[in-house]
Amino acid sequence: MPIDISILCRRISPERTTLIFGAGSSIPSGGPSGDDLSKLLSEKFEIEITAPLPLSDIATIAEAKSNRRQLIDTVSEILSPIEPMRGMLNLPDYEWASIFTTNYDEIIEKSYKKRKKALRTISSNYDFSNQSSLDDQVLFKIHGTISKDESTGHKQRMVLTAADFDQTTEYRELLYSKLTDQLLSNDAIVIGNSLQDPDLKEIIDEIIKIKKSKGAPGTIYVFSFNKDENQSLVYESRGLQVCFGGIDEFFSALHSQQSPNKLLLTDSDDILDTDRRVHPATTTVSTSRAKRSGDLNKMFNGSPASYADILRGWTFERDFADKLEHQLAEEQSRIAYILGAAGSGKTTGARKCLNQLVDREILCWEHESNLSLYVDGWIKIDAELRRTKQAGVLLIDEAHQHLHEINKLVDEICKHETPALRLILISSKHHWNPRLKSPNIFAHGVLYETGPLTVREIDSLLDILQSKTEISDLVESRFTGFSRSERRNRLLERCGSDMFVCMKNIFGFESFDDIILREYGSLNTDYQETYKQVAGMQAAGIRVHRQMVIRTIGIHATQITRYLDDLDGIIEEKTISEKHGIYGWSVRHHTIAGIISKYKLSDQGEYYNLLDRTIELINPTYFIEVHSINEMCDMDRGISKINDKRKQNILLRKMISLVPQERVPRHRLIRNLIDMEEFDAANSEIRLFEKELRTDGPVQRYKVKLLLSRAKNTSGIMLEDKVSITSEAAQLAERGIDRFKDDKNLYGTYLEAGVAYYRLTKNTEIFDKAMKSANNAYDRILDPDLKRTIRVYQNIEQRFSSSL
Question: Residue 447: helix, strand or coil by DSSP?
Answer without folding.
Answer: strand
